[in-house]
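The following block was generated as part of the benchmark described in Methods. Ligand: adenosine monophosphate.
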Amino acid sequence: MERILSGIKPTGQLTLGNYIGALRHFKDFQDNGEVFIFIADLHALTLPIDPEVLRQNSRDIAAFYLASGLDPKKATIFLQSTVSAHSELNSIVQNYLYMGELSRMTQFKDKSAKMNDKEIGLGLFAYPVLMAADILLYDAKTVPVGEDQLQHIELARDLVHRFNHKYGDILVMPQGKVNKVGARIMSLSDPTKKMSKSDPKGDIFLKDDMKTIRKKIMSAVTDMEALVYYDPVNKPGVSNLLTIYAALNDITIEEAAKHFEGCTRYGDFKKEVADTVERELAPFKARYEEIIASGEYLDVLKEGAKKANAIANVTLKRVQNAVGLLTLE
Ligand code: AMP
């Protein structure tokens, strides 16, 4: 069975962007493939983070995974830091990725540009190395992500080419998979920027209450034209709302635009978008609350760690053996 893997890092409040671009689709793979979904807690350490916040965010993501419909009987759900093979493979594959290519990564350039040179940790620079290790450990063929992560997956692919060229057919070639609709949800307050985890006005957080979420949608930045159609360059705000509407209704952008054809009041348009978001998120949030209250995610993570370790260690051995590390058994 084909292996599918993805992860989200517990750095802040999860957004509607994470939900539409990644989380919502993870469960789609669990009936036809072997799914591995993890909490990228080691990646969260690449930027300064309070320990208690990191712990809380990690619990939240575990609960969100379960609330999204991932079934722990079908999918392996785990914490990255509970599978030491991630760090061990990282320390091997780091020798096959180069400073030049790492310094060209958009995410590194964006994040480091906002920091003092003295504050930029090696982990931030080497972020894609650990991400490659995450993917390669599970022989994952498909990696569902939002658009911003494709560059990192391309790098992992380059690594596989390089490594296999040198050592033979050792690593499985992964492929990034983004959704046709919603691979890049934009901020509601500045629709030329990606919705990230940092702007309380423009980002819809999955933990916001429904009233706040509706309010954010109703005050989303649009334009003066009062016509609803898709044109991300000239109408980024309207196009973003159309994308959210289309993604959550599982229809194409064209179908969404057709639905709003002739609508001349942005208030009406936004209300329908808000209704769609509420229809999707209200039950999801209710499930999340139940899961957090019951603490059931803890057993899921423990069980997940066992399954993940067993599989990851097999790949790790294969790689250690290929590069010439002496094995004693
Ligand atoms: P992160 O929060 O950076 O760990 O991202 C987790 C997943 O959510 C990755 O697959 C991202 O590509 C995806 N993602 C994050 N922000 C967005 C966004 N604004 N639109 C679509 N996907 C996103």
